[in-house]
Amino acid sequence: MDEITDNVGGLSLSAKEWRPGEGFAATPGASSAPSGAATAAAAEGQVTAGSAESKGSGESCNNVSGQSSWKDASSSQAVDVNGTRYFGSASSTSWEQSSRHPHHQSAAQASLGDNTSHTHTTIPSHPQQQHRTPGRATLSNAHSLSVEEYHHYRELSLQTAQEMDPNDPRHKAVPPSFCRAFCLDNRHENDTSNTNTITQQRSSFGYPTSVFRVTSTTDGNLYCLRRMDSVRCVSHKIAQTVMHQWLSDTSGRLKHSAGGGFDHPGIVRWYKCFLSQRAVFFVHQYHAGAVTLRERFFSHGQGQGVPLPESLIWSCLVQLVSAIRAVHANSLAVRTLQLNHILCTQENIMSAISLGPYGLPKLRLRINCIGVIDILEFEARKGLEELQNADMRALGCILLSMTTGTEINVNDIYRDTVQKQTQTLMEYFQFVQQNYSREMYMLVHSLLNPNSIPSSIGEIASSMAMRAFDELDGAYCCIDEMHSALLGIYESGRALKLLLKLAFVNERPEFGIDKSWSESGDCYILKLFRDFVFHQADGDGRPVMDPGHVVSSLNKLDAADEEKIVLSSRDGKNVLVVSFADVAWCLEKAYQELCSNSVTISSMT
């Protein structure tokens, strides 16, 4: 380390400072500044002389280094002038200090004294502030997301990239306006062992149904495509009428596919319905990784689960009531309030907030398949009040299912006589009264009492207003954590943009007729900077994998920091002193020059 420090002292006195558009700065005492091809030779000669001179002053350097700690030093340098390795850079208040490499005061700093103002060095002139050493970035914290979030979103990305086998006959069931189909049916449909037959299951709507995740050839977005066969009661006129009710704006015109649909965070957006291939197709928004509420909590047996914690039930209920309230306010009815039509996704993989003894994380619910029953049962022409009352009964059954741990449908209760209904409900009510709060019991009773009309959605929303504040607090916490994650994503985006530009410019094999374009001028500076950032090594030649150095260097490059750094060629013959601002200027100039002569579709902005 002392030998390297001596070399740095020599380099600080003799290395040429490079400025964009001006070449190398003149060294005081020299007869003339080198230019053109003589610049590198002059720099090489002075580096050699400086290295020899520094060897003679090694003892003095060692004494100075022993008396001064790295906290008092204004510069930190470590350069191997023998031609193969170098590491370190000038220090500033924004630099992340490394606890891995000790910092030394250079011989130049100790010997120059008051004459430093007349000599070009790499030592910053401003005083260094005393502060604690910040933690170095590692592979776990240099990235914008935590390991858990990274794997979670990676899994979702892999799910969106899945496709069926090209020879799968189910591709024929997808209209030509969609591509990259993948079957989402909850059975062994994606097993390619038998690709000669197409099988469908009868859904809860009563028709053979197939569900696919598809990519639109029009806008390239992902959608959930539901195909229903053997439907004879649906025509184009019926589909257009129902779509007008759900998808039209205040002026009565249908919204475009990109932003259409009943827009509410608790509703899976419905885009359109159309008839093709003698089947009816419904296009809804696709949510990667979503499962139904039935699969989440009632898939352990024949509709059997466990009673859920009350705090989790209130959270789910607030979300469902909010969605139902928005639908009823638009003179519509949901009609799909069933456990197998409510999509469930985990809201925050990081926090995994424990709610009760089961340690269940906070969930995000969305009502799915809106508009489907309106089209399939259009001829029934039921009244709006009757349909909205049915929604409230269905909400009560969902609430009763979550409190009792048993899957309960509206038909399971209200298809019997009133006396039988009362007897069945009394058993459930007694269980809820014994295991949950009185507020929960009164809510279930008001929705499912067979002797009275269920409470309206407005009454239910008013009775649980205090619970909505708890959900609002959780939503704010989630927004804060997502905001922090987005800041990290932004940092990653800035770094990616710089890396792409460096990759486009560095060591390009050809540039028109100029074969040496990437090896001369500004591009040569960028090549040395690439080695400075990514190809560091210690004194024994072992690679130094320091993400903190990479992230810090890219941040300073993006900010065009005036901090000076030492760039050395691999053979050690060229040593340049430049700032991050100089490198940023060279990068932008070289990239714009490359773009002006390229045939790319669009340039980076």
Average pLDDT, all residues = 75
Number of helices: 18
Q: What is the radius of gyration computed over CA atoms, rounded to a whole number of angstroms?
A: 35 Å
Q: Class by helix and strand content? A: alpha+beta
Strand content: 5-15%
Q: pLDDT below 50 for ≥5 consecutive residues: which ranges?
A: 1-14, 27-131, 350-359
Note the main attributes of this structure.
605 residues; elongated; alpha+beta; four-stranded mixed beta sheet; single chain
Describe the protein's architecture and organization.
This protein has 605 residues and is an alpha+beta fold. The chain has helices spanning 2-14, 38-56, 58-67, 107-112, 147-160, 236-247, 293-297, 310-329, 372-376, 384-404, 410-414, 418-435, 438-448, 457-463, 465-505, 522-534, 547-559, 580-596, and strands at residues 16-19, 23-24, 178-183, 201-202, 208-216, 222-229, 270-276, 279-285, 291-292, 342-346, 363-367, 564-568, 575-579. Strands 3, 4, 5, 6, 7 and 8 form a 6-stranded antiparallel beta sheet that branches. Strand 1 (16-19) and strand 2 (23-24) form a beta hairpin. The relative contact order is 0.10.
